[in-house]
Amino acid sequence: MAYTPNDIYGYIIENDKESEFLQAITLHKQNFSIGEITDRRFLVKEDKTVKFISKMYKINIQITDDDIITAVMNGLYVSAFISRQGDAYNVHFLVHAYPENMKSQFDDEILKEVLRYMIMMTIVRLRLDTPEKVEEYLGSRE
């Protein structure tokens, strides 16, 4: 049977494996990790270009994705993540439907979206496309 990433996510939630899965992510199982960048900020320059800056991760990049630029310009809260698989690092963005200046009022909703994103990204990246592969991922010792 073919399972979609949403099916696998549903399996994880229905079987109360969310905490176990998040712990596996932090342990860099299968040489993959993803985490939210907590010291990030977006800088809108005078020419309306947008830069993403993280001092902790030493990231200073110009954003070229129109959806992210539009979200930042409209004052929406955008989460940033860095993923690593082997020597390959990637920066990811998740746009929330909540204003940046009201983040504290929506912390619970944002946290749920962030955790779902981290789990879904891991499911897709590691091709965890069956419940058996999820169980293997959770049970593997690396």
Strand order of the largest sheet: 1-5-6
Mean pLDDT: 93
- Gross geometry: globular
Residue fraction in strands: 25-35%
Query: What is the SS-derived class?
Result: alpha+beta
Describe the structure.
By secondary structure, the chain is of the alpha+beta class. Helix content is 39%, strand content 30%. The protein contains five helices and six strands; from the N terminus they run ααββββαββαα. It has a three-stranded antiparallel beta sheet with strand order 1-5-6. The chain has a three-stranded antiparallel beta sheet with strand order 2-3-4, with helices on one face. α1 crosses α4 and α2 (18-26) crosses α4. The radius of gyration is 17 Å and the shape is globular. The model has no long low-confidence stretch (mean pLDDT 93).
